[in-house]
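Shift notes (night). Ran Phosphate transport system permease protein PstA while the centrifuge was going.
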Amino acid sequence: MKQWFKSGKPWIWLTAGSVSISLIAVLGLLILIGWRGLSFFWPAQIHEMEVRANDGSTSTIIGEIYETESIPIERLQESGVALDNFNEPTLERWLIKVGNREYVPLDFSWVLEPQIVRDETPADLAVFERTKDGNFYGYVVDVLEDGVSVAEQGSIREVLRQRIERAVELNGQATDLQDSEISAINYQLNQLRLERRALELAGNLTPAEEARIAAEEEQLRQDYKVLEEQLFALRDKASRDQVQVRDMRGEVVTLPMYRMLAVHFPNDMGFFAKLGHFFVQIGKFVSQDPREANTEGGVFPAIFGTVFMVLLMSVIVTPFGVVAAIYLHEYAGKNAITRLIRIAVINLAGVPSIVYGVFGLGFFVYMVGGSLDQIFYPEALPNPTFGTPGVMWAAITLAILTLPVVIVSTEEGLSRIPSTLREGSLALGATKAETLWRIIIPMASPAIMTGLILAVARAAGEVAPLMLVGVVKSAPMLPVDGNFPYFHLDRKFMHLGFHIYDVGFQSPNVEAARPLVYATSFLLVTIIIGLNLTAIGVRNHLREKYRSLEH
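Came back to this:
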């Protein structure tokens, strides 16, 4: 046994076991997050239950089973729930998502198993996905066009789907018109207002210039009126149709089609129909904007903001980190000052991220951004342009936060390059700059990519500093659009990490938002893995490309 310990094999097995346990834990966590998140998009069965209250009265509940738990009898009896003729120590209770938000006090209702008199899953129960007030559950009674029934035109389900698709298409055209052409006119009107203000401040607002700006504004307003008429016409067409639905109260409710996004009958769907619906819902989640205080809809603005901010941060941190590492390793003297700088760089990696956020807010936003506004955008004051949190300041702040990682990783790569290569290059007549550019940097590029991978992994998951320097709950516009200069780095943006925090802890409806927390977390991990795999692929390509320089 003593000889076996001296051989070092126990430590090999201990290390292998630790790595295996870590991998199992990570994979288990990813599987748990993925399962809890992706199961949200699978169409659940819709139950129609008849429930008996404590006073003997009965009511009907229509909804989907959201959660099931076992609860001790003593706990229910202490809370005043009467359970006659029930001798089991525990019983099941179900959390039912009932929807129909405008007609019920709460979206969710707890139901005890002994209280259920009848539980059915009728095939005719419909789920309406709406742009406002969440889902609506009920039986389709009739489809109306301007108040007149059109159900006789064919199968009521097919007529309903056609009318909803028509309303969705018209709403999409109206949204596109509003976000593109009308938004562009508003942007141009604002630019003309700023131009007039700039000329006024400079004392160059001549009558000719005033007449030119006024003429352009008048033309834009005329164009705006034409587009506004088209917008109202599209909205009028979308509001033509309605659907009548009998809800769980037994009352027939008329719902406007222009608020509908889709309808499906989950109790009448087979496996492949549910699978197709599952992928459609995932597609909507990653491509649509959020609704209902981020508890409904998709997360596309957050995906775009996360990726855009990380890419911008990578463009900033890589050259600065590489240049700093090259200077420290290749040019700086081996003295106490250099050692002190290295210690400072290493210590910067341990500074809490919120401190970087405070620094970014005070230095970049208020000092640098405020100075830029005073010099280049005085016509917009007192409304700040760059003197307010935005995606550029968020990217720069995270670049400083991840700068030590890139510096340390690049220095490690430079230290692994044999000095004989440098000496051989210099002996052949190359300058030090040529040696760095043609020999050292290419050979160190895999280490540079490793530092970038670590920087991306950390920056994509940061939330605390972003709350101070640019991220918001809901951004009305993306940082990129069709208006010059196309990249608007002064705008605020949405981020998946902050979206998780907001939905999980700031949501007015915690139960409804819980699956979205898992889904968004899984999406964030997937994006980080995708960015890292891309960087790893580039690193491996560079490693193979410059491997010949090592021999």
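The radius of gyration is 31 Å. The first strand starts at residue 46 and ends at 52.
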